[in-house]
Structure formats: C-alpha cells, structure tokens
C-alpha cells in the first residue's frame, strides 16, 4: 500500500523539486524534521544506524534556538527523564573539543548548555540530553549505554522517510514483488578458506537473489596485485556453478589470494564481500634435546611446548612416556593451555616422566578444509623430574600467565576462550563473573570451569571478566581481564533500496560497525564511484546525487574496509517517471457518512513525480486549494478530500484527478448518507517488514453531537493500548488508526476496528502480514528406518515463509561426543526437499558423512529473499549404526628407540571415530622405495605404538609405514604413507684436531675438525657435539660437559674459574648416543676482569640529543688482567637491562652518549673491561637529556604508554633541580 505524501510541487526549469511536511511521528522545527525515539533503547552505534536506515542522522545542534526547541520538547514529553543520544562526541573536554558527527560541525554553544561539571567530566565520549534541575541540558554517557535517541533530517529530504512504503512494485500494476524486476542482492556471502592439508578440493559459495535470477562471476586478486576472473576457461581445475566455485587440488602458488563474487542481471551488478584463500604451513620441531623441568612435589610445574613455526594456527596435545595421552578432563590439577604449555597446579612424584608435545595444523576460527589428516608434528621428550618434598598447604595463586585470552585479538563472530589457572594445594574450584554486567547468553564453561567460552562473540561482550579460584571456604583469590572485541566491518542495517522521483536529490548513508574504524567507498554496478562536481558528492559514508535522472538507475553499494576485511551492502536505485495511476488503489466505490458527521475521502494514486490533485463533484470542479483550513469541504495537502458536518446535499459522485508532467488519471466514488455511525474509511490489508511500523487506518463518520470511541481487537481479543508497547493509536496523514510499532511475526493476524458511541457500534477488519525471513522450522527428526552407518534421512516441518517463498534450507549437526555444531547439508533447495505424497509442509533431506556408531542431534534453518531465519530447536539424539571406522589414524611417525628397532607411532582414533566394538590396527611397513608391503602386523585395542626388530645392520634406514584401523564390523581407510628412519647405531668416529684457546677469565674457545655427517660415519644423523672438561691439576676432579646441536667446528665453554688449567676432549652425538672420546687438549683461562667499579659518575647536558658523562676510573691488581677501556651501558627506565645500548671507549674518564630523547628517563651504569671480560658495574645512575638526576621516587611519576616517557610532578622536578645545582657547586 502506498502512503500518501504531503507535497507542494514547484517546477523549476522543467525539473520537479519537492518540499514535504515532516513524516508522521516527526516534528518540524524551522527547516529540519526531528524524531524522538524512546523504544527500543539502543547503544550509540545502533542508534546512529537506526537513524541512517531512514536516510536521517543523529541529532546535531547548531543554534541556540534549535537547542531550546529540543529542550522544550523533552520537557513537555519526557516524563521519565531519559538520557537521549545525540551525534555529539567529546574529543578533548579540557580544550572544549566537542563535535557533532551527524553533520561534521563543532559544538560551539558554550559551557552554559551543560548540566554541570560532573556531567562534563563523566566517563564516555557521547553527548546526551539529560534532565538538569529545571531544563534538559547536555551531559556525557558511554557508547555502550542503552538510551533513547533523536534523529534529524532536513525537510527537503524528508520524503525519503515518507516513501519508505514505496517498494519494487511501485509503478507496476501488481503487488507481487516476485513479478517485477529486481537487482541482485546477496543472501549468503562467501567465507574465507584455510587449506590445512592436501585437499582434494576447495569450495566457496555466494548466493544472490534477483529477478531475473543473476549470473555469477568470480574474480581473484592475486598476492602480486593482479586482478582477473577465474573459470574453467582459465584453469581446468576451476568449476563455477551458480555462484559456487570448486578448485580441484588447490595449490598455494596458483590459488592463494583474495576472491570476490559478482552477481549481475539486467538491473545491475553487485560485488560480494572479499574472502581470502590461505594455505596452512607447519614447520619442524627443533632437534635440540630439551632441558629437563625440575619441580618439587606439592608445588607447581610448567612444561613449554616450544612449537615450530606455523600458519595460521595449531592445536595442542600432550602424551606421557610414549604410552598415554594427558587427560585434563580426568585430572583437574593438569591443564593444557591454548598457548601450548602443560601446567600442573600441584605436581606429585607420580607425574615424573617424559612428555611430548603434539601440534596439529588447524584454521583459526575459519572454514578449514583438507583431508582428515592435517599436518602434525611431535616434539622431542621433555623430562619432568619431580623431587620429593614435604607436603604443605598453600595457594590458590592465579598464575601470572592467566587470565589468558585466545585468540589474542578476538574478532566478532569468533569463539573466544578465557583461560584461568591457579597453582596450589588441590582441590581448587573455579567460577567466573562479569563486572557490572550479566554473563553473555552465549557463554559456557568447560575444563573444570577453568575455561570460559563465548560463542559467536559480539562487540557488546567486551568488558571486564573476573576469575575466582578457591579451596573450600578457607582460601580464595581472584583476577580480572578486560576483553576487547574487534571486528571486520558489518552493516547492522543494510542499504535501503530507493524508489525516488526524477529530478530529485538523493542522499544515501551507510553505517558500518568496525574495530578499528573502517574506510568507506561507494560503487555503482560494481565500479567504484568518483566525485563529479555538481552531480555526485562523496563524503566518507555519505553519497549525494543531484538532479536524478534515468541514467542513475542501477545497483549501488557501500563498502567498509579495515585490517580485518572488506564488507559490502547494496541497494537498488530506481528513478521513477510515470503518469498517475489508480490501478492499485482506486477511490472507494461507495462511502457512507452520517448527517452532521465528518468524512475523509482518500486519493492515493501512484505517480512520479508527485502529482497535483483536483477534486470534482458530479463532474464539476470544486476549485479547492491544497491546505485550506477554513472551508467545510477542503482538500488536504496530501490530496485527500475532507467533508465536515455532512448534509444531504453532499450526496454525489466525487472524482479525484491527479496530474504530473507525464500525464493525467482520475478515479470516481460515491458518497451516500447513513442513518447510524459508520466506518467510512475501513482498514485495508497491510503488509509490513519485520521490525518496521505498520499503520491500519480506521475512520468513522458520526454525528458531531455524539462521541466515538475506537477500540481495536487482535484475533478477536481486545488490545490494551496502555499495557502493550507495540500498539499506539494515533493519526497518520490526517487519518485515524492503529500503529503497530517494531512489528514482529506474532503480530500477523486479523485486526478489527470497533467504533462505538453511547447508543451503537460498528466494526470493520483487515489483516496485517509481517514480512521477513522464514520462521523457524519445527519437529526435526530422523526417519528411523533410514538410519545407516554414515547417513540418514532428516525430516522437519517448514516454518511460515513470511511473505516470500523459501529458497533453501541448511542442516546443522552436533556430534554428541564433540559438542560442536557443524554444517552437515548446505543450501538444499526447498523444491528438492519436497517429497511427493507427503504433507506439503514436510521436508526431507539426506544427510551424509556421519560417523558410524556415533550420536547426533540436528537443527535446521531456512532462507528467503529477506534473509536467514532462526534455527529450529535441536532434535533428539540419533545414533548411527555400527560400521567399520571411517577415519584413518593421524600423526603417523616414529623412528627412535634402541639399536635394531623400528618404532612406529600414531594418534589412536578418538572415541567418536571408532565406529563400533573391537577396535584394532593393521601396521604395514617396508623398506623405502620398494613396491610391496612385505610386513603386516595386527594389533588389538586402541593403541598408538608398535616396535619391531629389523636388525642392527639395518640402522638408520628409511622405511615406509602405514596404519589401517579395523573393528568387528570391518576395515577402515588406510592412513597416508609416512617415511621414518629405523633406530640409529652408536657412532664409532673419533674427533680430531681438538684445540682450546683462552677466551676470557671464565671461558675457553674449543675448535675441532667437523666429522662427516653421513650414515656410514655417524651411524645415523649427527645431532651435535659434546665437550667434556675438568680442572687439570685437581685431584679427583668433577667432570663437566656442554653440548651444541648441529654441524659446527667450534664452541664456547663457559662457567670456568679464572687463571685455571683445564683439560678438554670432544664426542659426537646422534640419537643412539655418543662417539668415542677424542684426543685431549690443555688450556689456561685468563685472569679476572676488573673487580673495582667506576665511581663519581656525572652526567651533563651536551647537545640537543646528547649528554656528557665523566667518571673516576679503576685500577687492576695482580690477579686481574690489565684494563683496556670502559663501557657506558644505558637504557630506558622501566625496561630490562638486557635492552641496553653500550658506548665503548678506551682508557679515559669521559665520553659522550648520542641519540638521547627529550622527556625520557634513562638508567646508566659504567664498567671497565679487559681481556678477562667485563668488570663490575657501577652504581645505578638516572639521567635525562638535561643531565643526571639525584634520585627517582617512582611513586611520584606517571608512566605513559609502554615506554619510559615520564611526567614528573612539579615538586619532584624542583627538588631534583636544587640537588643537581648543589652537586655542580660542590664539584666546581
């Protein structure tokens, strides 16, 4: 239904321009319209977007009269004293830098418009109107607060709000939107892909709706910047089918990059969001032996995984002593963090053993694809050596590494993990809270409550989270973390299609939510728009087009981009130019009025531009003037005819004639007299989109001496207007009726208007239909007879289509053992899921790819051209039939052990992968590069290791290994073939030419001839070298050793005594052990480094970036090497000394340090050095660019950012200046 527009038509140079009164529920002041939105409350971002959805913006106050108008309206109407959002943002209150984001101007009205100093200095940057003592004035609030808000739009452009009722059928002789042309709109955007294994294929899909159905193209932006379309014509591996691109055998060299879809029909062209295709990589663990971790019983312990390099992410698992996986779910004192580390809150001697870390390549909250065997690596063992100790009761103490957040920078839509771990005597229990706010409804807890999970995290989930750890009621502690959510841009309100008059002006705003802030661009039919003076202007997220004509028709898109990606929203622009037409809404054939009553005869033709109106009575012009407010018979500004105090002479045929520059049309109806109250203008059927406002008209004609009360019924039940916030009686375009605000699907139904006087009443009714995405499906169940080992048939009842046909359904499955939903059937068309002969509401689809013997729950959601509907309730659990395993083992490897061993390891299948009882494995192995599997061993049980003897002479040879699972139902798939080495032999080589040289007082440099790293020489693979050393002339000396990994010819032995003779020899290492001992050498370490430290250190200003340093030097004794010079070691205060810089000088007592920054505090130590090494460092000295300061009281300084940029209080600076002056006088 078209809602009439209040207008005056001006013709300027043959082009029509329009001025409108404000839309219904908007208030006019001077040349702007204002809307005061109380319900629903919104945060600042959503309020701004809600205004933008109507082409308006949040309030900007530019004049004192405008401020007074806003304040007075609120004083008269806001009895609850709300806080009202405006577009004002505080940038710097101290300098009074407050700006209106709505129109980009600065707030210059002055201090007096603020409530008080407290309001001016409140937290939060958003400017609000709030009630003071006597009036509404300005205050501050946070952007996350939920408040009413004020929208503003110029009177010239207010037609955009009124024309919200114009849709794709406006100007066509049909009300069925599926029968008129529509440009393409994306219903499903493509998702980024991470290829994490040797994938058979990579697939992504975009789905668009349009009439006619759009065609698709896929465009790639390669990593080198080149842009081109991809299809089977460019690469035989590509297959494009209706927006779905499949890439066979994806390869990083050819396929990595950024992609986007283009959908096109005869109306226009749109681009999809960008997606990235990345390829995961996983390096190798270091082959350096891992240092043991020593811990005392009843204390805590931490083992670091030290993972190899990887992209994009890995998951972690640990196993102990090559025979059992670490199970934190069974042992509450053990915790595996997503940082890879293995934690023990309280360790015991039973935990002693060798621990290996397993990493498996995964995607990071993305759509991972690949085989069932993504790359994985296993570390060398780390020995946890637990020493006996006396039991004590201590803790709980939350570790310094917790609370940890994963991923480190969470983004909207990801699954976020908050981890908390306390050390101390068990048992320790955990709980979580959120400061000042309830916990997110998508939050859950796992791993003994140590992990808080937030599914599909949103920006509003940010805040401070608190972990509480306690032991019984006697000991407790807590720690908090502030969670910040960043996001790729997304549009809460998509761009609205515009159906506007030729010659008019269009201002289009889009508003994206993004962290960090986005950069905006505008496109028409897939091509970026540029500014054309006098025609097109673009200011950030605002597009303005002047003097619209037919050539401006097309599909327009606004894009928002930040570091996380680029998103689009699209809308169609239809520039309309056609003569008036009464086809859809002719005048009512017969209207009844009561003598002495009033009646409104509506005239609502479709026309573009808006026509002028003429009314005729029995074919004679009435010569009415629009907007007349005094005559008994008058024409309203919107073209409707109003007759007051009806008399019998008004009975006649009335004709409304509408005319614009493209033509003329008319419609005629008859007015008759009734002898009782009548509803002259009854409600008509109305359609409204979900969350928008519908208006149901109802106007009675009755004698002016009587009073009429209107009552509304919904599905024959009286509506309590005062208690139901969705309903409001009022006037729209001079017609009385019922507003249904923020309409929901539950509001669809029959509405009855009852007009009642003291003597009689009459009724009329119509139906309201709320349009939107499909309602949730119901009754999801699996057909029992169809359940197989890996598939079943799922049935459900479709929900209401809500105005548009359902296009397709999506089925999600939840494995009971995993408790994580995944898409089981994607985008199955509604037509293909209909089974002939069944209830036409029933749908059935085949679900494949299930695990045998595993329980599943299912849920379904549907999609139409309005969008994606809600998910159904989950089904009951259904268990597939037992069958052979469908998953191959992963992490197949091995290769260590005793001489003659071939050790084969793999990751046993998870419980949900077993398929049935009687699990076991077939182990195949053969010499590398042979064609047949000559050896096969059958193992029973869900084991993960097999060791066989291949003979000592077969040391360090390559073998191919493969594992196949089986159970009582049959054999499963083979794993991929892995190549491993048999165990190594102890090397028999002896290292030659071993020589030692003095390095300093506590170190020797040892050199040797490297050994050939060949199988024949090393009996395996060279791991490195070990130097053995001891004091030469000491009886019964202590033998020491130090080792290095890799091939090398020298190494530094440290930790020695000064001026002492040492004996050294060398051995080569492989996995089996150490070689024979080499020849020996003897060497004397140097004498000690300077033991005295420089004193009397003074720092003075030298230049714009330098300081001058003096000191008193040191002397050396007979046990020390002669001094060679001095080192000046300086660093930022607050940083670690290991970040220090050195200035090296000779035997002198002064030096200049360059590169000193202004307003920073530095630390300085001076030391002497010799061939014996670095000497003792001087006392700590603080200085700035101005010179040395005597002392620093850290309690009187404020550290800014992450550097040592200090703002020192005035008293401290004054004191330091006095002390420095005294010191200078003392040394003069």
From TrEMBL:
Any one of the GO CC terms: axon
Keywords, alphabetical: Disulfide bond, Immunoglobulin domain, Repeat, Signal
Signal peptide segment: 1-17
SUPFAM superfamilies: C-type lectin-like, Fibronectin type III, Immunoglobulin
SMART domains reported in the protein's UniProt record: CLECT, FN3, IG, IGc2
Occurrences of domain C-type lectin (ranges): 29-152
Domain (Ig-like) ranges: 184-276, 303-359, 396-482, 489-569, 580-674, 682-769
Pfam families cross-referenced by the UniProt entry: fn3, Ig_3
Record-level GO BP terms: axon guidance; cell-cell adhesion
TM ranges: none
Stretches assigned to the Fibronectin type-III domain: 773-882, 888-985, 990-1089, 1093-1188
Keyword Disulfide bond attached: yes
InterPro entries found in the cross-reference section: C-type_lectin-like, C-type_lectin-like/link_sf, CTDL_fold, FN3_dom, FN3_sf, Ig-like_dom, Ig-like_dom_sf, Ig-like_fold
Name used for this protein in its record: Contactin
Organism, as annotated: Magallana gigas (Pacific oyster)
């Amino acid at each position: 239904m078209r809602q009439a527009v209040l207008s005056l038509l001006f013709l300027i140079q043959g082009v029509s321009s329009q001025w409108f009164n404000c839309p219904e529920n908007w208030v006019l002041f001077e040349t702007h319209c204002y809307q005061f939105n109380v319900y629903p409350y919104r945060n600042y971002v959503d309020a701004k977007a809600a205004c933008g959805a109507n082409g308006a913006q949040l309030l900007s106050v530019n004049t004192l009269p405008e401020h007074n108008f806003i304040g007075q309206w609120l004083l008269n109407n806001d009895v609850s004293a709300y806080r009202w959002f405006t577009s004002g943002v505080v940038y710097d209150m101290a300098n009074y830098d407050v700006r209106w984001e709505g129109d980009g101007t600065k707030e210059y009205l002055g201090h007096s418009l603020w409530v008080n100093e407290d309001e001016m200095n409140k937290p939060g940057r958003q400017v609000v109107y709030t009630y003071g003592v006597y009036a509404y004035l300005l205050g501050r609030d946070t952007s996350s607060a939920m408040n009413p808000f004020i929208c503003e739009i110029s009177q010239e452009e207010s037609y955009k709000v009124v024309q919200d009722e114009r849709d794709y059928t406006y100007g066509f002789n049909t009300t069925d939107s599926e029968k008129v042309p529509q440009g393409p709109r994306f219903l499903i955007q493509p998702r980024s892909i991470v290829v994490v294994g040797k994938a058979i294929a990579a697939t992504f899909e975009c789905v668009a709706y349009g009439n006619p159905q759009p065609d698709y193209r896929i465009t790639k932006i390669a990593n080198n910047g080149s842009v081109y379309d991809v299809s089977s014509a460019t690469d035989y591996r590509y297959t494009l089918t209706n927006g779905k691109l499949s890439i066979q055998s994806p390869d990083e060299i050819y396929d990595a990059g950024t992609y986007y879809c283009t959908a096109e029909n005869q109306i226009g062209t749109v681009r999809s969001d960008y997606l990235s295709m990345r390829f995961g990589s996983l390096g190798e663990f270091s082959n350096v032996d891992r240092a043991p971790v020593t811990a005392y019983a009843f204390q805590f312990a931490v083992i670091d995984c030290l993972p190899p390099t990887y992209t994009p992410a890995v998951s972690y698992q640990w196993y102990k002593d090559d025979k059992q996986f670490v199970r934190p779910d069974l042992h509450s004192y053990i915790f595996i963090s997503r940082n890879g580390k293995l934690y023990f809150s309280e360790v015991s001697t039973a935990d002693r053993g060798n621990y290996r870390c397993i990493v498996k390549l995964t995607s990071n909250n993305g759509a991972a694809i690949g085989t069932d065997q993504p790359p994985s690596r296993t570390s060398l063992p780390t020995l946890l050596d637990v020493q006996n100790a006396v039991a004590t009761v201590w803790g709980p103490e939350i570790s310094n590494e917790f609370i940890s957040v994963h991923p480190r920078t969470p983004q909207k839509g990801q699954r976020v993990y908050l981890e908390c771990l306390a050390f101390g005597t068990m048992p320790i229990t955990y709980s979580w809270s959120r400061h000042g706010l309830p916990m997110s409804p998508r939050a859950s807890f796992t791993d003994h409550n140590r992990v808080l999970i937030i599914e599909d995290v949103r920006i509003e989930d940010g805040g401070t989270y608190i972990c509480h750890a306690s032991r019984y009621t006697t000991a407790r502690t807590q720690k908090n973390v502030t969670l910040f959510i960043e996001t790729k841009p997304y549009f809460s309100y998509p761009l609205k299609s515009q159906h506007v008059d030729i010659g008019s002006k269009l201002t289009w705003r889009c508003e994206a939510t993004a962290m960090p802030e986005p950069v905006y661009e505008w496109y028409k039919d897939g091509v970026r728009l540029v500014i054309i003076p006098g025609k097109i202007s673009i200011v950030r997220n605002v597009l303005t087009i002047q003097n619209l004509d037919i050539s401006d028709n097309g599909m327009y898109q606004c894009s928002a981009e930040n570091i996380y990606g680029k998103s689009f929203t699209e809308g169609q622009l239809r520039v309309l130019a056609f003569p008036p037409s009464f086809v859809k809404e002719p005048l009512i054939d017969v209207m009844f009025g009561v003598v002495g009553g009033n009646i409104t005869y509506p005239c609502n033709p479709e026309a573009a531009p808006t026509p002028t109106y003429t009314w005729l009575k029995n074919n004679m012009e009435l010569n009415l003037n629009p907007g007349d407010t005094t005559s008994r018979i008058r024409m309203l500004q919107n073209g409707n005819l109003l007759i007051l105090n009806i008399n019998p002479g008004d009975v006649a045929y009335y004709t409304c004639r509408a005319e614009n520059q493209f033509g003329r049309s008319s419609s005629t109806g008859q007015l008759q007299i009734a002898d009782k109250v009548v509803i002259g203008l009854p409600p008509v059927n109305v359609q409204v989109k979900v969350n928008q406002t519908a208006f149901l008209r109802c106007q009675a004609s009755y004698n002016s001496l009587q009073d009429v009360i209107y009552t509304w019924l919904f599905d024959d039940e009286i509506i309590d207007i005062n208690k139901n916030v969705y309903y409001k009686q009022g006037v729209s375009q001079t017609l009385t009726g019922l507003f249904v605000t923020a309409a929901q699907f539950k509001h669809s139904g029959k509405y009855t208007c009852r007009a009642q006087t003291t003597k009689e009443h009459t009724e009329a009714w119509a139906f309201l239909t709320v349009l939107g995405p499909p309602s949730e499906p119901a009754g999801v169940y699996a057909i029992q007879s169809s359940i197989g080992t890996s598939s079943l048939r799922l049935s459900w009842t479709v929900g209401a289509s809500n105005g548009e046909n359902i296009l397709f359904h999506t089925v999600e499955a939840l494995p009971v053992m995993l408790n994580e939903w995944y898409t089981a059937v994607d985008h199955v068309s509604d037509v293909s899921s209909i089974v002939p002969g069944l209830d036409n509401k029933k749908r059935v689809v085949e679900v494949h790819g299930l695990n045998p013997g595993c329980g599943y729950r299912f849920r379904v959601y549907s999609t139409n051209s309005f969008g994606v509907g809600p998910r159904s309730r989950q089904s009951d659990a259904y268990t597939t039939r037992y069958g052979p395993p469908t998953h191959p083992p992963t992490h197949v490897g091995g290769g260590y052990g005793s001489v003659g061993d071939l050790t084969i390891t793999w990751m046993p299948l998870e419980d949900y992968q077993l398929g049935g009882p009687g699990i076991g494995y077939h182990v195949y192995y053969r010499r590398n590069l042979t064609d047949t599997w000559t050896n096969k061993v059958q193992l029973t049980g869900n084991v993960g290791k097999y060791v066989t003897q291949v003979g000592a002479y077969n040391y360090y040879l390559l073998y191919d290994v493969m594992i196949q699972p089986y159970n009582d139902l049959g054999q499963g798939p083979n794993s991929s073939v892995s190549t491993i080495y048999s165990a190594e032999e102890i090397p028999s080589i002896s290292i030659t030419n071993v020589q030692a040289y003095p390095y300093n007082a506590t170190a020797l440099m040892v050199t040797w001839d490297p050994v050939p790293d060949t199988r024949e020489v090393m009996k395996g693979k060279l791991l490195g070298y070990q130097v053995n050393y001891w004091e030469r002339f000491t009886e019964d000396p202590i033998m020491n050793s130090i080792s290095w990994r890799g091939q090398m010819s020298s190494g530094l032995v440290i930790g020695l005594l000064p001026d002492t003779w040492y004996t050294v020899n060398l051995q080569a290492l492989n996995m089996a052990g150490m070689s024979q001992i080499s020849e020996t050498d003897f060497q004397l370490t140097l004498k000690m480094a300077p033991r005295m430290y420089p004193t009397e250190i003074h720092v003075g200003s030298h230049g714009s970036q330098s300081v001058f340093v003096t000191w008193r030097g040191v002397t050396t004794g007979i046990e020390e090497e002669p001094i060679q010079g001095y080192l000046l070691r300086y660093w930022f205060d607050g940083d670690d000394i290991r970040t220090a810089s050195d200035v090296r000088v000779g035997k002198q007592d002064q030096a200049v340090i360059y590169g000193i920054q202004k307003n920073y505090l530095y630390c300085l130590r001076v030391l002497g050095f010799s061939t014996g090494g670095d000497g003792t460092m001087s006392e700590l000295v603080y200085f700035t660019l101005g010179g040395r300061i005597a002392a620093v009281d850290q309690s009187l300084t404020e550290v800014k950012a992450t550097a040592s940029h200090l703002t020192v209080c005035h008293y401290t600076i004054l004191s330091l200046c006095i002390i420095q002056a005294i010191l200078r006088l003392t040394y003069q």
